[in-house]
Amino acid sequence: MEALRSLGLDAQACHDGPSAIAMARHEAFDLLLLDCRMPGAGAEAVLTALRSDPGARSTDCTAVATSAEMDVVERQRLLAAEFSEVLQKPCNLADLRRILALVQAGATAAPLLDDAQALATMGDADVVKAMRTLLRTELATLYQDLDELLDDTQGLAERLHRLRSSCGFCGAAALGVQATVLQRHLKLGHSGSLAPLSRFRRALLATIEALGHEAEA
User: Fold this and answer.
1) How far apart are the C-alpha atoms of 31 and 29, rounded to whole Å?
2) Cβ-based neighbour number of residue 155 at 10 Å
3) What pLDDT, in 10s, does the model give residues 29-69?
């Protein structure tokens, strides 16, 4: 908590999951830093409760899971559960600054390809390379299908959910941020909002290009 405040944040603490849910329902936070083993409700239970409550003030904010025990499988599972990032405790100031960059400036502050994140998730550079090859194919297909998916909100939401997992595994940080933003706008019934879609499309093209350059290197 003091580390967050030292970065100039107005941080508030909760000692259990139900208190975190109640606070986030009544106050609008930019970031939720949720421990996986909070008494009463862990990070996933808290996030599920907030995401399913359109009236919650913090239903649309960035969520990050933390845990003292974190292996590759657990990290992958949490990234697939709508967390923007996963941190192993104890967290240092560099970790917190990286998280704040996602919150403060969206994809413009997040790297197109975060090698450190990908290695932490996949555990092996060769696996990362193979997964990024598959991701490039997935993104190219999504780009071709995107205009058609605009008429199928449910189908687009499902593709975005799968894409967020792939981005988390491969360290496609900027695209992961914009996929999260667009997915939340769809959940809140804002399918007609053009700004999130435009930012997502730009991040999608930029990531395809970055993956192509990496493959050629």
Assistant:
1) 5
2) 13
3) 888 999 999 999 999 999 989 878 877 888 767 788 999 88
DSSP 113: S
pTM above 0.70, yes or no: no
Instruction: Please calculate the CA angle 109-111-115 and round it to the nearest 5 degrees.
Output: 145
- Tally Cβ neighbours within 10 Å of residue 157: 17
178 Cβ contact partners less than 8 Å away, ≥ 6 residues apart: 106, 107, 196, 199, 200, 203, 204
Residue type, 73: V
CA angle at 44 for the pair 6 and 138, rounded to the nearest 5°:
95
Strands ordered across the beta sheet of 62-67: 31-35, 62-67, 85-88
pLDDT tens figures, 92-127: 888 888 777 666 655 345 788 999 889 988 889 999
Distance CA 50, CA 34 (A): 12
Tokens 């605009």 sit at which residue?
Answer: 150
Separation between Cα atoms, residue 216 and residue 172, nearest integer Å: 17
Taking the C-alpha atoms of residue 33 and residue 102, their distance in angstroms, rounded to an integer, is: 13
